Automatic annotation (TrEMBL):
Transmembrane segments: none annotated. The lineage of its organism: Eukaryota, Metazoa, Chordata, Craniata, Vertebrata. This is Tyrosyl-DNA phosphodiesterase 1. One of its GO terms (molecular function) is exonuclease activity. One of its GO terms (biological process) is single strand break repair. Monomer.
Length: 570
C-alpha cells in the first residue's frame, strides 16, 4: 500500500509495529552495517554521472526517485550476514582518479597541522564544562574552546595511572595511539557489548597490547546495545569522569560534531572518610556508583571502590542513564526517560508563560516508534520532556511544540565527509516507511559554523517560545528510540529498557540560575560564559517541501556530494 506525504511517496509495510532487529547474526549491529557501507563507499567511490541511468541502474535509482518506495523482497539480502558477504554489483565501477585523502581515514590523520593537536587546559572557572570536539576542515575560530581526544588524555589533565573506556565501537590500535607515549602502557579496560564473531574480532584487535583487559556488558534483552560512551581516568593527582558522544574510532573525532562533559579533577578523600563523604548536591557520586553496579561485573568492582575514595562534591550536573531490564515499582524511574522525568519533576519549577515552551531533540539515529505518534513519542516520551516541576502541566505540555533535528539528505550530501557521513546516521528504510507521521516533526541541521560537520552528538532541551532561554539541557548517548529511553509496558506498571546509555543533565537550579540564557554566538569561544552554548541554531527550521530525512540503506544518486560521488550501498 502506498501513501503520499509532503516528503514523497512511500510503500507501507504490512509488518507489525515491533522494534526491528538491531543486531546482526555475528553479534554486530545495524549501526555497524551502516558504517561498513560508508567505508565501502569511501574505498570504492562511484562518481556522479549527469546523464540518464542505464537499464541496469535504473531500477536501483527508482527507489530514491519515487520517494524511497521500498523495493521488492528479492532486492534485499536474505539476512544481514548475506549483506556482509555480498559482492558489489558488476555495474559499479571504481574511479581511477580518486578524491584526495581526507582527514577522517587513516593514515591521513598525520597530515593534520600540529596546531590541530595543540593542547591547552580549559579555563579553571568554566561553568558548564560542556565542550564540542575539534573538527578538521572548518575555520579555526569554530574550534576555539573545543577538545580532541588527545587533549582529554594529555598529561596536562593529570598523570594517568589507569583508565576505562566504555563505548559502542572501537578501533583499538587508533585509540591506543591517542594516549600520550608515556601513558600507552598504563592498564586500560574496555567495556563493550560485542558478542560472538564481533567479540572475537575486538579481542583480536587487542592482541598486540598486553595492558588491555575487557569487560563485556550483559545484554539480556533482545536488540539492546552497549551504547554508553564514558571514560574513567585515574591519576596520581585524583580521578576524572568524561561522558561523551564519540565512538572510539577515528571517523568520530575529525569531521563530525560531537559533545562531551568533562568533570573537574576529583581529589582523593582523607583516609577514614565515611562512605557518604564526597557526595555532590546533585547525587552524582551515588548515581555513578549505581550505574557501574548495574553491570554486575567483578571487573568494575575495583573502580567503584576507587570512586568511593574520591571527593565528587564539586559536580553540578545530574546523571541520566539507561541499563537493560524490566523495572517495577520504585525501580521504574531509576533509568531511561522516567529517570529524566523524575529529575525534571523534583529539581525544576513551572515557568509562567502564555505560550508553551517547545521541546527540541537532536540525534543521529531513529528507532521504530510505532504506527502513530500516540504509541510513544507524543505520549509517554513527550510527557517526560515537558515535565517542569510538580505542576509542569501549567506550561501546556500537550500543546508544547516538539522540534526534532535530524540531518536531511542534502545535509549529508553537502557535509565535509559527503555521503559517507550517512554511515553514522543509521535510519533504515524498513523503519522509516512504517512511521511516515514522524517526518512532519523533523528539522534539518544548521548553524554555528559547523553545519557541514554532521552531528553525532545527541541533545535534548526545553526552550522558551523565543528560543533565548532554556529550562534544561541534556547531552546523551541516547538517540530517538524506545530501546535507548525505555517504554512502559503492562498498562504502565512496568518499564522496559533494552540498551545501556549515559548522559548528563544541566539544570539551572544547580547553577543558582532560574533559566539558562542561550549563547547566541558560541564561536569563537572567548572564555567562561554564563550563557549556554547550544551546538546548533535556534529556532530550528522545518524541512522544506523537497527535504527528505537521510536513509542509509537506499541509493542517493540524484546529485553529487562534496567529493563528486554518489551513495550506492553495497
Amino acid at each position: 500500500m502506498s501513501q503520499e506525504s509532503q516528503h514523497g511517496k512511500w510503500t507501507l509495510s504490512s509488518s507489525d509495529d515491533e522494534d526491528p532487529p538491531q543486531q546482526t547474526p555475528d553479534g554486530g549491529s545495524v549501526g555497524s552495517e551502516a558504517r561498513q557501507a560508508a567505508h565501502y563507499n569511501q574505498q570504492n567511490p562511484v562518481k556522479f554521472e549527469n546523464k540518464a541511468p542505464s537499464a541496469s541502474t535504473k531500477r536501483k535509482r527508482e527507489t530514491e526517485d519515487s520517494g524511497w518506495a521500498l523495493s521488492s523482497s528479492d532486492d534485499e539480502a536474505a539476512d544481514s550476514s548475506d549483506r556482509k558477504r555480498k559482492q558489489p554489483s558488476p555495474k559499479r565501477t571504481k574511479v581511477e582518479d580518486r578524491r584526495p585523502p581526507s582527514p577522517h581515514r587513516e593514515p591521513d590523520y598525520k597530515e593534520e597541522p600540529e596546531e590541530f593537536y595543540e593542547t591547552s587546559l580549559p579555563p579553571s572557572d568554566e561553568i558548564f564544562r560542556f565542550y564540542l570536539n575539534k573538527v578538521s576542515g572548518v575555520e579555526k575560530k569554530y574550534n576555539t574552546g573545543a577538545l580532541h581526544i588527545r587533549d582529554i588524555l594529555s598529561p596536562l589533565f593529570g598523570t594517568l595511572k589507569e583508565s576505562v573506556q566504555f563505548n559502542y565501537c572501537f578501533d583499538i590500535g587508533w585509540m591506543v595511539q591517542q594516549y600520550p607515549p608515556e601513558f600507552r602502557d598504563k592498564p586500560l579496560m574496555i567495556v563493550h557489548g560485542e558478542k560472538r564473531e564481533s567479540k572475537a574480532r575486538l579481542i583480536q584487535q587487542a592482541q598486540p597490547y598486553g595492558h588491555i583487559r575487557f569487560c563485556q556488558a550483559k545484554l539480556d534483552i533482545a536488540f539492546g546495545t552497549h551504547h554508553t560512551k564514558m571514560m574513567l581516568l585515574w591519576y596520581e593527582e585524583g580521578f576524572r569522569v568524561v561522558i561523551l558522544t564519540s565512538n572510539m574510532i577515528p571517523h568520530d573525532w575529525y569531521q563530525k560534531t560531537q559533545g562531551l562533559w568533562l568533570s573537574p579533577l576529583y581529589p582523593r578523600l582523607p583516609e577514614g572518610s565515611p562512605s557518604s563523604a564526597g557526595e555532590s548536591p546533585t547525587g552524582f557520586k551515588r548515581d555513578l556508583l549505581d550505574y557501574l553496579r548495574s553491570y554486575r561485573s567483578p571487573e568494575l568492582e575495583e573502580w567503584t571502590q576507587r570512586i568511593q575514595e574520591h571527593d565528587l562534591s564539586d559536580t553540578r550536573i545530574y546523571l541520566v542513564g539507561s541499563t537493560p531490564g524490566r523495572y517495577l515499582g520504585a525501580d521504574m524511574d531509576r533509568w531511561g526517560h522516567l529517570r529524566l522525568r523524575k529529575l525534571l519533576s523534583e529539581h525544576t519549577r513551572p515557568v509562567q508563560s502564555e505560550e508553551p515552551w517547545p521541546v527540541v531533540g537532536q540525534f543521529s539515529s531513529i528507532g521504530s516508534l510505532g504506527a502513530d505518534e500516540t504509541k510513544w513519542l507524543a505520549a509517554e516520551f513527550q510527557q517526560t520532556l515537558t515535565t517542569l516541576g510538580k505542576g509542569g502541566k501549567a506550561l501546556g505540555s500537550r500543546n508544547a511544540p516538539m522540534h526534532l533535528v535530524y540531518p536531511s539528505v542534502d545535509n549529508v550530501r553537502t557535509s565535509l565527509e559527503g555521503y559517507p557521513a550517512g554511515g553514522s546516521l543509521p535510519y533504515s528504510i524498513q523503519t522509516a516507511q512504517r512511521q511516515l507521521w514522524l517526518h512532519s516533526y523533523l528539522h534539518p541541521v544548521g548553524g554555528t559554523g559547523r553545519s557541514h560537520a554532521m552531528p553525532h552528538i545527541k541533545t535534548f532541551m526545553r526552550a522558551s517560545p523565543d528560543f533565548t532561554e532554556l529550562a534544561w539541557f541534556l547531552i546523551t548517548s541516547a538517540n530517538l528510540s524506545k530501546a535507548a529511553w525505555g517504554a512502559l509496558e503492562k498498562n504502565s506498571t512496568q518499564m522496559m529498557v533494552r540498551s545501556y546509555e549515559l548522559g548528563v543533565l544541566f539544570l539551572p537550579s544547580a547553577f543558582n540560575m532560574k533559566t539558562f540564557r542561550v549563547q547566541k554566538n558560541p564561536f569563537p569561544a572567548t572564555g567562561p560564559s554564563t550563557s549556554f552554548p547550544v551546538p546548533f541554531d535556534l529556532p530550528p527550521q522545518r524541512y522544506g517541501s523537497n527535504d527528505q530525512p537521510w536513509i542509509w540503506n537506499i541509493p542517493h544518486t540524484q546529485a553529487p556530494d562534496t567529493h563528486g560521488n554518489v551513495w550506492v550501498p553495497s
